[in-house]
Design brief:
The chain has helices spanning 49-57, 79-85, 102-109, 117-127, 144-156, 174-191, 202-208, 226-230, 232-239, and strands at residues 11-20, 23-33, 38-42, 64-69, 72-73, 87-90, 162-166, 194-199, 211-216, 219-224. By secondary structure, it is α/β, with parallel strands linked by helices. Bound molecules: adenosine-5'-triphosphate (ATP). Belongs to the ABC transporter superfamily.
């Protein structure tokens, strides 16, 4: 068994390859996230961002290489086992349950939680006060931004050690994007949460990340500072996004 020590990254991809059928998408992806860090992954459409998060979570099998979490090789573990180990995932498109109420969505998030459900939900609502007024509303009746807050809140109910976020700003109005940034900062400060975020929104990724990795054609090609990524002209040189 591998033991974690202070130098062990919380999450690492080691020469990770994955794809769909015979189509390879990720090629030797290598990176490590230390506990407490917020790391962004920037890349434009189709570069493999979602594929990478799905492979890290185990929804897509790695064809070669390894994923480690807290020093343990989780490459062959199911998504549920990875979630139980402390990996939280908010997929692209949010995937809340539209026909269940906000409260019921949060209850679903508590299935893997160790604390009593009521206590967990009360605690989560202090971080997401906006959701309090909507507890009995169907999740599908919320705006896109509110659904994103609900998806985040639901994921946090399981008390993860790392949060993997797939393009949380997609299709969301700017005022709520600011609220999501503030909420995630708050959670990082209060809970010491580690974050791995894939995004195309330069303001969002720069505001939240300690460092940013550039993903191009399924490979991490370089690392840049948040300040460098804030400038769309520089980003154009890295990834040709603008
Ligand atoms: N289920 C699938 N079957 C086959 N190919 C897929 C599948 N899902 C994604 N792909 C292909 O894999 C490549 C990477 O897609 P992926 O969704 O990981 O990119 P992305 O960087 O997240 O893009 P976006 O920002 O558009 O979500 C694309 O060429 C895409 O067409």
């Amino acid at each position: 068994m591998t033991m974690a020590n202070n130098d062990t990254p919380l999450l690492a991809a080691n020469r990770l390859d994955a794809g769909y059928g015979r189509i390879p998408i990720l090629f030797g992806v290598n990176f490590a996230v230390r506990a407490g860090e917020a790391v962004g992954i920037l890349g434009h459409n189709g570069m493999g961002k979602t594929t990478l998060l799905r492979t890290l979570m185990g929804y897509l099998p790695a064809t070669s290489g390894a994923v480690t979490f807290s020093g343990a090789d989780v490459t062959r573990d199911t998504p549920t086992k990875r979630a139980r180990a402390g990996m939280g995932y908010v997929p692209q498109g949010r995937e809340i349950f539209p026909n269940l109420s906000v409260r019921e969505n949060l209850v679903m998030g508590c299935l893997l939680a160790e604390r009593p459900e009521e206590e967990t939900i009360a605690d989560i609502l202090t971080i997401f006060p906006r959701l309090k007024a909507y507890l009995d509303r169907p999740g599908g009746a919320l705006s896109g931004g509110e659904q994103q807050l609900l998806a985040l809140a639901r994921c946090l109910c399981q008390d993860p050690r790392i949060l993997l976020l797939d393009e949380p700003t997609e299709g969301i109005q700017p005022s709520i994007i600011e609220e999501i940034i503030e909420t995630l900062h708050d959670i990082r400060t209060k809970r010491g949460l580690t974050i791995l975020l894939v995004e195309q929104n330069l303001n969002f990724i720069s505001s939240l990340s300690d460092r940013i990795l550039i993903l191009q054609k399924g490979t991490i090609v370089r690392e840049v500072t948040p300040d460098a990524a804030r400038n769309s002209e520089t980003v154009d040189e890295f990834v040709g996004m603008n």
